[in-house]
Amino acid sequence: MKPSTISELLKQDFTLQEVDIKGWVRTFRANRFIALNDGSSLQNIQCVVDFENTDENILKRITTGAAVHIKGELAESQGKGQSVEIKVSSIEILGDSDPETYPIQPKKHSFEFLRENAHLRTRTSTFSAVMRLRSALSYAIHKYFNENGFFYVHTPIITGSDAEGAGEMFRVTNLDAKNPPLTEDGNVNFAEDFFGKETNLTVSGQLEAETYAMSLGKVYTFGPTFRAENSNTSRHLSEFWMIEPEVAFMDLAGNMDLAEDFMKSVINYVLENNFEDLEFLDQRLQDEDKKKPQAERSELTLIEKLRFVVDNNFKRVSYTEAIDILRNSKPNKKKKFKYIINEWGADLQSEHERFLVEKHFKCPVILFDYPANIKAFYMRLNEDGKTVRAMDILFPGIGEIVGGAQREERLEVLKQKMAVLGLDEEELWWYLDLRKYGSAVHSGFGLGFERLVMFATGMSNIRDVIPFPRTPQNAEF
Amino acid sequence: MKPSTISELLKQDFTLQEVDIKGWVRTFRANRFIALNDGSSLQNIQCVVDFENTDENILKRITTGAAVHIKGELAESQGKGQSVEIKVSSIEILGDSDPETYPIQPKKHSFEFLRENAHLRTRTSTFSAVMRLRSALSYAIHKYFNENGFFYVHTPIITGSDAEGAGEMFRVTNLDAKNPPLTEDGNVNFAEDFFGKETNLTVSGQLEAETYAMSLGKVYTFGPTFRAENSNTSRHLSEFWMIEPEVAFMDLAGNMDLAEDFMKSVINYVLENNFEDLEFLDQRLQDEDKKKPQAERSELTLIEKLRFVVDNNFKRVSYTEAIDILRNSKPNKKKKFKYIINEWGADLQSEHERFLVEKHFKCPVILFDYPANIKAFYMRLNEDGKTVRAMDILFPGIGEIVGGAQREERLEVLKQKMAVLGLDEEELWWYLDLRKYGSAVHSGFGLGFERLVMFATGMSNIRDVIPFPRTPQNAEF
Fold it and tell me: What sequence ranges are listed for the domain Aminoacyl-transfer RNA synthetases class-II family profile (chains A, B) (predicted)?
């Protein structure tokens, strides 16, 4: 079959053939050289126009952003940095692009500006590389789970439960916004709402995924989740995608094995399949780094960071051990940490996590057996009565990337924990049923997909790794 | 590696080895034979208990639904219908299941009852088969697109746009439900809502997907979409998953080629990879059919229906031709159709679509070039000024399964159509930008994922092909 995309065309190892290709003009210089891109690859292909024999009105319309249809002959390139080029025999303008108003000029734009033009930003090399990587990582995730006997479960987005407890929720409603129906005692009558009760957007699919693990064995979710927190930071989104595997008969040690194997596998996938895009982003970061003072530069390049994860065993360290290490560490003693670690029970911050990974162990770290009172109600209580079988995976540059746990499988212990937190047994009747009928040890973890994309692309603002970010005050597009 | 699931174990071609396996008891008969299932496969494995040497208290706890850990030796089976069985050397009860209260008894339950126990229904053969197939179809979709150079795009779930026009929307808010803030003129002040304006749950990712097609070339979405319509039918959900590919430089003919190849590929995937589950569901349907009067029985079995799609070319027929065929058809003349087709311009119903597929052409059908006024504003107007380059794919037993179109790429024509419908140009500025800067022919289609799962599993109620269905008055679990 004839290649129809630039990606296909550049994979060919023969030249001198007729080609027929469509794409968008990135640049046009010397009235002669079109850098053409069609999104299939980071690479542009150079198209050489015979300007002496081309209508001047056509030449004028070859502007940045214009869509063109080019026919010609593939030839070895005379220029640097490319092996082949197209000698154009015919060019048709499919769609013009007014160079006076087209937002994506052939120059460096700020990421803030490009966010305001999120509908066009994938026409830049950086964002097309990021979004191709996002797609490849998604595929790597589905592929990993499929090859390892997991079933994909679509847990519900609209939930009637407010017991998930992972954060503030958005209400989903179609009651009249101004004059909602009221009950006799003057409260909003949610019984008249669409679902007959108050409903929200999910913050996690885990509890529902557990029901499927306890019947199908190995399952995972990969879907959108929501937080209505007013966090305007470079690490938070109101809408983001999450991956949550859940496995019956698996304990915390198995959970750690799974998470390590999984993370290595998906990162290895992009190293093997998307190296060109990674190299480009790596170079971009190195160029950025050169502008910074020495002290702020990264110790590892992007690709080194990815290899750091793939090539190292993840060090498994109990929370208690980690606290000892941190308490006795230089930055703690010299008060270089923003949050000084004084005693067991403290919640770790990103600075502590990064210290453990980057300075102390020099490898990815899995912390486990956290204090019960800083973790969720459904985590398996240890025999010590004060820690739970939770684990967090810590990565360089980013800190926590995965959080997981063995789940509390004992009905009475779970009920006690719910009672302490004031969670309603009636509402979670189905979750409790799993502990009544054929309960067993089971475990799982959650990975915020955008955190993974940030790690794999080196992008530092989470708004730049999702197509159309939703954040407080912003739901454009 | 030692097999740890029943699926892995049954793939082994040797016997007489030590096995160590965990699962749930489906049945226990004659104080001796456990049918054990772990969800990895439709198959149970028979575990033979040496009851004379097993503690009576343990034997009593081997009840339907109990989780057990079994060690033993794999041996050729003496029984019918299975090649291997496990001679149990040790059995441990991991989690009891009270036979008096466990909802999933070893008998036939109605689907209505099982819907009320959706957290346990995948412990039945039918629902575990359906959900394994749902997972396999998801994977087949990602695999197809990945292998064909498409990038996966996560379009936003929360949208500030109400111009998608595909149906009623749910509002997403965190304003006070009872006393929302008001503007000076007494309306709800959505400027104070989380996103600074009124927001809803998306009904389609197509418009956003178009922005990515017009930069990355070939893209697809696969995510949840929502309809706030009060439709309590066996074909409608308030929350469902949709697949929407979108391709730059592709016209309607290319769109039909893509859709046909795609549908054949994903159905072929489950025929090749999930035949056991398909056979089980096929048999189930045949058994159901036998209870019906002759006239209501299916002409094709489930597997025959799937092969009908894979083995036949999809017949391409213009809407105008189809109307002629229908107008002159026997059921139309004899008034057997519920909706009689009298003239060009009529919207086709499922009965007409099925007639074309099942009676007239006897193959899947693609109808194209529909009247403009029964289709969406963004579809490409034909030169006749009255039809648009839309296409619907019709399948046996179900009617329309895919709907797609070439998109209107001409700025002025699009603006005129929006004006007629009263759609705000300001709101869709980014969508119009695609027609201002490097516009080109492009096309795509939408596939309701649950429709595909219904078709591939033969399930007749859409609530039975999604884990936790959301419908009017119901958001349980």
Answer: 131-467
Delimit the domains of chain A by residue range: 6-95, 125-166+203-314+363-464
Q: Domain spanning A6-95 has what CATH number? A: 2.40.50.140
Beta-bridged to residue A390, according to DSSP, are A405
A-chain residues near B182 (CB < 8 A): 178
Q: Across residues A433-454, what is the average pLDDT?
A: 98
Task: Give me the residues of chain B with pLDDT under 70, please.
Answer: 1, 13-16, 163-166
What pLDDT score does A14 carry? 64
Nearest chain B Cα distance for residue A381, angstroms:
17
CA separation for the pair B15, B377 (Å, rounded): 63
Smallest CA–CA distance from A205 into chain B, residue:
B477
- Supply the pLDDT for residue B166: 65
Minimum-distance CB partner of A149 among B40, B95, B228: B40
Contacts of B171 in chain A (CB under 8 A): 172-174, 177
Sign of CA dihedral B448, B452, B458, B464: negative
Name residue B443's amino acid: S
pLDDT digits (tens, 9 = 90+) for A31-64: 999 999 999 999 999 999 999 999 999 999 999 9
Q: Look at A477 and B194 and tell me if their CB atoms are within 8 Å.
A: no
In this prediction the ipTM stands at 0.97
pLDDT band at residue A318 using 50, 70 and 90 as cut-offs? very high
pLDDT tens digits for A243-256? 999 999 999 999 99
The whole-angstrom separation of Cα B59 and Cα B91 is 9
Contact B160 A476 (CB under 8 A): yes
For A187, which residue in chain B has the nearest alpha carbon? B178
SS3 call for A282:
helix
Strand ranges inside A262-386, DSSP E: 315-318, 365-371
Number of other CB atoms surrounding residue A144 within 10 Å: 21
Q: How far is B476 from chain A (nearest CA, A)?
A: 6
pTM as predicted: 0.97
Count Cα atoms within 13 angstroms, Cβ side, for A326: 31
Q: How far is B441 from chain A (nearest CA, A)?
A: 8
Query: Chain centroid to CA B288: how far?
Result: 22
DSSP class per residue in B76-91: E-SSSS-SEEEEEEEE
How much is the pLDDT for A16? 62
pLDDT confidence of residue B76: 86
Average pLDDT, integer, range A211-218: 98
Residues from chain A that touch B161, judged by Cβ atoms under 8 A, are 477
Q: Reply yes or no on whether the pLDDT at A1 is more than 60.
A: no
Cβ contact, residue pair B226, A439, below 8 Å: no
Please indicate whether, in this complex, the C-beta atoms of A119 and B160 are within 8 angstroms of each other. no
Query: A74 to chain B, minimum CA–CA distance in Å?
Result: 21
Overall average pLDDT of the A100-119 stretch: 96
Contact B67 A170 (CB under 8 A): no
Work out the angle at residue A221's Cα, subtended by the Cα atoms of residues A215 and A225, and round it to the nearest 5 degrees: 135
Domain B125-166+203-314+363-464, CATH: 3.30.930.10
Return the residue of B nearest to A439 by Cα.
B95
Cross-strand partners of A171: A200, B173
Residues in B closer than 8 angstroms to A128, CB to CB, are 215-216
Q: Compute the count of residue pairs across chains A and B with CB atoms less than 8 Å apart.
A: 331
Cβ atoms of residues B442 and B406 within 8 Å: yes
% pLDDT > 70, chain A: 98
Q: Name the closest residue on chain B to residue A197, using Cα atoms.
A: B473
Amino acid at A39: G
- Which pLDDT belongs to residue B10? 87
